[in-house]
UniProtKB/TrEMBL annotation:
<feature type="domain" description="Glycosyltransferase subfamily 4-like N-terminal">
    <location>
        <begin position="34"/>
        <end position="214"/>
    </location>
</feature>
<feature type="domain" description="Glycosyl transferase family 1">
    <location>
        <begin position="224"/>
        <end position="378"/>
    </location>
</feature>
<dbReference type="GO" id="GO:0016757">
    <property type="term" value="F:glycosyltransferase activity"/>
</dbReference>
<dbReference type="InterPro" id="IPR028098">
    <property type="entry name" value="Glyco_trans_4-like_N"/>
</dbReference>
<dbReference type="InterPro" id="IPR001296">
    <property type="entry name" value="Glyco_trans_1"/>
</dbReference>
<dbReference type="Pfam" id="PF00534">
    <property type="entry name" value="Glycos_transf_1"/>
</dbReference>
<dbReference type="InterPro" id="IPR050194">
    <property type="entry name" value="Glycosyltransferase_grp1"/>
</dbReference>
<protein>
    <recommendedName>
        <fullName>D-inositol 3-phosphate glycosyltransferase</fullName>
    </recommendedName>
</protein>
<dbReference type="Pfam" id="PF13439">
    <property type="entry name" value="Glyco_transf_4"/>
</dbReference>
<keyword id="KW-0328">Glycosyltransferase</keyword>
<keyword id="KW-0808">Transferase</keyword>
Length: 406
């Protein structure tokens, strides 16, 4: 163990081969938040604990209170949580953050208490930014995963567009400064890696799937009793759930299609109003936040998963739907084409094109049984490469500074 410039212990930079690691995961969003970045961090942390590593997670508290250190059980695995005092971002319905000018202070406290072998930050915004800078001072290696498209954050500001553009540039400039401190930068897909490399002029971004544990899902091969469309996710602007509602209104009434929407968000009231305006209130159910058991039941009984989002860096919910043997109809944008292979496990449509979405949904819902089951099996085959164990193998190699598995 060496000493850092501020006199604190520093990690050696790479762990002994085979030795269990002490890993600190820094998150700006984590359970009980429900979003792709939080879900990935939860599964990663739980998978690492299951493999014998000591995992600490630093994340915002659920309210503004003193820092709390305690054990939490996440995805069935116990881990040490370092919850930091946080405040709610008022334009958003649940997002919480710590004061940015306190991030380095908290980073010093947590790093001194944990003394990890490696730090894995899940964003460059607040907690990750502070951890990266203090970990660098102490010689602790850093791995960063980017789940953020800064443009999405602007949906939750109340500032004019010209201010938003300035903020966006500053945000990406700061992201580059943070990522320049790391041993490795990862994103969920090759397309997301290309986007990041172009946006902030860095090289060598490693695409690593968020991964899912397929054992947690129940694929049911065969037609459903009723025609049910499903969407799961945050009800925010970039998800474009309104596009699915408009498409539902254009489907043949004889198909008797219903639409289940699982998730909460700032757009829920507007979407409920649109549902009523379109005369769909008796066919659309807003379930809000659901338990894992309820979610699995929704996947298993649905006929097709529809996602019109234009901002998916991977889309864990789409992978969950595939692991549940659902055909997918998704927007041809960002990462969704990596998961939805047009004509194989479902169909792609041009983002925002209501008529094309309605047509593709109709193709799935009217497909002969043999064709429908072929799409179901294609979803199961396509999600196999996203097994969580492949993801864990790759991150372990990055933490140990070893060659990545093929």
């Amino acid at each position: 163990m060496t000493s850092s410039p501020d006199g604190q212990p520093a990690s050696a930079g790479s762990a002994e081969p085979g030795r269990p690691l002490k890993i600190l995961i820094g998150c700006d969003t984590f359970a009980p938040d429900i979003n792709g970045a939080a879900r990935f961090a939860e599964r990663l942390a739980a998978g690492l604990v299951e493999r014998g590593h000591e995992v600490h997670v630093v994340a915002p508290n659920t309210r503004y209170r003193r820092s709390a250190v305690h054990e939490e059980v996440i995805e069935g695995q116990p881990m040490t949580m370092h919850r930091l005092p946080s405040v709610r971002w008022l334009p958003h319905d649940w997002l919480r953050f710590i004061w940015p000018w306190r991030s380095k202070h908290y980073a010093r406290k947590v790093l001194s208490a944990v003394q990890p072998d490696v730090v894995h930050i899940q964003s460059h915004i607040v907690i990750g930014r502070g951890l990266a800078r203090i970990a660098t001072q102490r010689g602790i290696p850093i791995v960063a995963t980017n789940h953020v498209m800064a443009e999405n954050i602007l949906d939750h500001t109340t500032m004019p567009d010209f201010i938003n553009r300035i903020v966006l540039k500053l945000a990406w400039d700061d992201a580059k400064r943070t990522f320049d401190l790391t041993r490795a930068v990862t994103t969920p897909t090759r397309k997301a890696a290309d986007f990041l490399e172009r946006t902030i002029d860095i090289a060598g971004v490693v695409p690593i799937s968020c991964g899912i544990d397929r054992r947690n899902y129940t694929p049911v091969i065969g037609p459903r009793e009723k025609n049910r469309i499903l969407f799961v996710g945050r009800l925010t602007g970039e998800k474009h759930v309104d596009v699915v509602l408009h498409a539902l209104a254009r489907l043949d009434p004889a198909l008797d299609v219903t639409f289940d929407i699982a998730g909460g968000g700032d757009q829920r009231k507007a979407l409920e109003a649109l549902t009523a305006q379109l005369g769909l209130s008796d066919r659309v159910t807003f379930h809000g936040r659901v338990t894992d058991e309820q979610l699995r039941e929704l996947y298993s009984r649905s006929s097709v998963f529809a996602i019109a989002s234009i901002a998916e860096l991977q889309s864990i919910v789409t992978m969950e739907a595939m692991a549940s043997a659902l055909p997918i109809v998704g927007a041809d944008a960002v990462a969704l084409p990596h998961l939805v292979h047009d004509g194989e496990n479902g169909y792609l449509f041009q983002p925002g094109d209501v008529d094309e979405l309605a047509d593709k949904l109709t193709r799935v819902l009217t497909a002969p049984q043999e064709e429908y089951e072929r799409m179901q099996r294609a979803s199961l085959d396509g999600v196999a490469v996203h097994d969580i164990n492949r993801t864990l193998d790759t991150f372990e190699a990055l933490y140990r500074d070893e060659p990545l598995p093929v």
